[in-house]
Each structure stands twice: as structure tokens, then as C-alpha cells.
Amino acid sequence: MEGSKTFAKAFMAKHNIPTAAFAVFNEASIVDARNFVASCGGPTKVVLKASGLAAGKGVLLPENEAEFEQGLQDILVNKVFGAAGAELVIEARLSGPELSILTFADGYSTYSLPCCQDHKRIGEGDIGPNTGGMGAYTPAPEGLVPGMTERIEKEVIAPTIAGMRKDGFPFVGLLFTGIMLDEKGPQVLEYNVRFGDPETEAALELIDTSAGGAGLAELVLACAERRLDSVSSE
């Protein structure tokens, strides 16, 4: 789910989890990649993603033909991301605010922390290449819109956990889901099967045990023992 964006995108397509339209290419299909991007309306309409793990830096948003071609060469030919660039996922570019959702899961039950937002771009004014994260805050205003949390749970989190169980790898632990809110609603950008940095530092501060709610250790233990639905998270 995290180690291969190709796998994750196929999983989302299989289980009808909302995500951007995509296609997958390798070094032998560079011509096909160029044709696909042209069919999407050009470089500014797509996102290039190294399929494997690239420390949060394997996503490129070309702003012109030259940047697209350079990104294509860097990922598939020059292997600037190493083995992570053996495959290239090209997605339709979405527009809207991003949210990060950290969800505890025991294979069946889930508990999500309030939505976070991180700052990815290296430059002031949200410009420049993506980094592994330049800080985060929570709760994100977009996640506080009435009904949004419930919609994300229904359309994204629940079918993801159910799909993993159905496919024979029930998820137990902390699932990080990156989401963009476009005009259609929540669209999944990526999954990480771990706590996400830097969002975790902000989100864990909102776990409130003052009224008897479960703390971090209790939540993790409940996941491991498959009894998350038995603990209070309020």
C-alpha cells in the first residue's frame, strides 16, 4: 500500500475508492507516457509519481513540456530515485486542499484522529519542489466542515480497511491516508502504513485522556489485540 503506488492505485480502482485517473509506465514505455500526457491535456494537467518509496520527494508537478520531459527522464532513465523509479505512475492533476488522516485500525474497527495538513513545498508561498514535510497543524479547517469527517470515513477509510481484509491482508496498526478535496469530494492521493511525519507530532497532541479516554499506548494495544471497538477514544 505504501511501497508501491502502482499497487495502491490498483487497489483503489478495485474497491471503488475515489482517486485520480491514472496510468503506469516504465522505461520501455516512455513513448506511451508522452502520448498519455498529451491525451490528458498536457503536462500541467498531470502529476508524475515514482511508484516506490522516495522519502516523500518522488512527486513532480511539471509546469511545462520541458519540466515534464526532465521528470520523465529523471525518474525512468536517470533513476534519481533509484529502484523507486522502476515504474512511473502518471495521474490526472487534482486541485484543492490536502488533508492527512491518521487512523488506528484492528482489521475491522477504526478510530481516526482529527484531520491534519502539512506544508510540503520548500519555498515561501507554497512554491518549489515537494519535501518530506515542512511542519503541520491540526485540526485542519477543511476537515471541520459539517459532514466531511463522516464522508471521508464512509467513502475512504471504511472501504479501504474492508478491502484490505477482503484481499487477505487485514490491516492492524496506524494507516496514514493522504486526501485531496476537489469539486467531487475526497480523493485519495496516497497511503502510508505508519505514522506520518510531520503530521503525527501535531495530531497526537489531540488525544485527550482527561475524561477517561484511551491514550496512545491503549489504542495501539487495542489494535494489536483486535479490540479497538472496546476502548473509549473520547
From TrEMBL:
Q: Which UniProt keywords apply?
A: ATP-binding, Ligase, Manganese, Metal-binding, Nucleotide-binding, Purine biosynthesis
Superkingdom is Eukaryota
Database matches in SUPFAM superfamilies: Glutathione synthetase ATP-binding domain-like
Where would I find the ATP-grasp domain in this sequence? 9-225
Task: Give the GO biological process terms.
Answer: purine nucleobase biosynthetic process; purine nucleotide biosynthetic process
Q: Which InterPro entries match?
A: ATP-grasp (IPR011761), ATP_grasp_subdomain_1 (IPR013815), PRibGlycinamid_synth_ATP-grasp (IPR020561), PRibGlycinamide_synth (IPR000115), PRibGlycinamide_synth_CS (IPR020559)
Query: One Pfam family this chain carries?
Result: GARS_A
Coiled-coil intervals in this record?
A: none
Q: Molecular function (GO) terms listed?
A: ATP binding; metal ion binding; phosphoribosylamine-glycine ligase activity
Identify the PANTHER family for this entry: PHOSPHORIBOSYLAMINE--GLYCINE LIGASE, PHOSPHORIBOSYLAMINE--GLYCINE LIGASE, CHLOROPLASTIC
**Protein name as catalogued:** Aminoimidazole ribonucleotide synthetase
Source organism lineage?
Answer: Eukaryota, Fungi, Dikarya, Basidiomycota, Ustilaginomycotina
